[in-house]
Amino acid sequence: MACAELRDLIKPVSSFHHDWMHGVRQGTMPIYMFLILEAMSWQNFTEYTKLWFLPASQNCKLSDLFTPKRIEAHKKSKRLKISASEVLSLFPVLEHYVLKVASKTAACAAQSQAFLATCRFLCMLRAADHMTIRGSDFDKVAENVLQLGKACGWDSFFVKKFHWLFHYGDTLELHGVLLNCFSVERKHKQVLRVGQDVANLSRYEASMYKEVLGQQLARLRTAPSLPFSLQKDCAPTKKMVQALQACGYTCSACCSTLQAPCSLVKKGDAVLLVSGDKPFDCGEVWSHFLSGNDMYYTVPNLFDFRNICTETCRAFCNIADKPQVVPSCRIRTSVIFARAHAGVTTLIPWHLQQRLWLEKGCKRLFLTTRAAATQASQPLPFCKLPSHFHSASFPANSVLQAFHSYSHLASFSYSYSHFASSP
């Protein structure tokens, strides 16, 4: 502010952002997680977490968050003492448990609604950069979070970060984006790792800067230039080569870990794959390999797809023994899954949930519009998508055309803006 040349360019008040990583994932969400677990049973949910498996790249075991020692620490601090990344891994499983168990019991019905409202707010924050969400939508859900929490008697746990809930919508309307500190927090670890070994205290800052910058440049130089790459690849076994040759494939290298655009995909992960006739294919990864024509392939054991619950965004499959070779580019993402005698349940991540919402919303929109036009004996009018899908208007008959060709469109983009601009 002391520089007159920058005074008209830098506006600290209007450019200020409330960081939702610290405000929600390290603020309101751990408190509501603690309160809903207090209303339910710690022991039952701890046993429930043992049924679920996270993608191996997350390097987290949910049941380790609820050892007797950690539960005692949670109760002492009156919130879950876990990191923001652990909140991200835990909340889909806890949300599923509340939907399937707690919300159906009279003793926890009110508390379940309050917690589910917080989950809805967090999902909106994560999706704000990828789909059309208005600032007023955040205000409505934030008000719902506080009202339901107050009705449960949780208002004594409200801290200042609960007031932040009403600022995210204003920030989105003003700047068109909601920033978070995940990248900054990840960089902290690199700096701390270097700082522990620097002994030159007379020029500590310069030594730190050179070391961190050198490591970053080296990482960028060795990073794979292709969207797919094998991590620590090795020569395939004779048995694997023979099996692939029987299927018409050659194999020059294989590995249990694939660097894909979505994330690291490791052996044992459950993955969602692009499918032509179903919303997704689902299977368990067995291996990855590089063929002789420099194409990357994955060998998953595909499950028998049963159905998808569009309300809770959960996919249900039957366990089957159907290993297949598929191009690695068909992998959408690794998912959280549970295996039981009834089959496999996968939790569809937020960035793929919008496909289910869009498909369901477009179908309802077309049927409603067609019924109204038929009753009035008039041609299909221009209509408008609901606000939670997209704000663009287009002819209703194009909704049907896009809806029928949606499986093809979804192979290229899952964004609402792409759909609204398509013919």
Question: What do these coordinates show?
Answer:
The protein is 45% helix and 17% strand. By secondary structure, the protein is of the alpha+beta class. A six-stranded antiparallel β-barrel has the order 6-7-8-9-12-11. Strand 4 and strand 5 form a beta hairpin. Mean pLDDT is 78; it is low at 376-423.
Which descriptors apply to this entry?
423 residues, alpha+beta, six-stranded antiparallel beta barrel, three-stranded antiparallel β-sheet, globular, disordered C terminus
The helix/strand series, from N terminus to C terminus, equals HHEHHHHHHHHEHEEEEEEEEEEHEEHHH
Alpha carbon gyration radius:
25 Å
Strand order of the largest sheet: 6-7-8-9-12-11
Mean pLDDT: 78
Instruction: Please give the alpha-carbon distance between the first and last residues.
Output: 50 Å
So how many helices?
Answer: 15
What's the total count of β strands? 14
Oligomeric state of the chains present here:
single chain
> What structural class should be given to the helix and strand makeup?
alpha+beta
Shape: globular
The low-pLDDT segments are 376-423
Largest sheet: 6 strands, antiparallel, barrel
Strand content: 15-25%
> Which range best describes the helical content: under 10%, 10-25%, 25-40%, 40-55%, 55-70% or over 70%?
40-55%
Describe the structure in brief:
The chain has 423 residues and is an alpha+beta fold. The protein contains 15 helices and 14 strands.
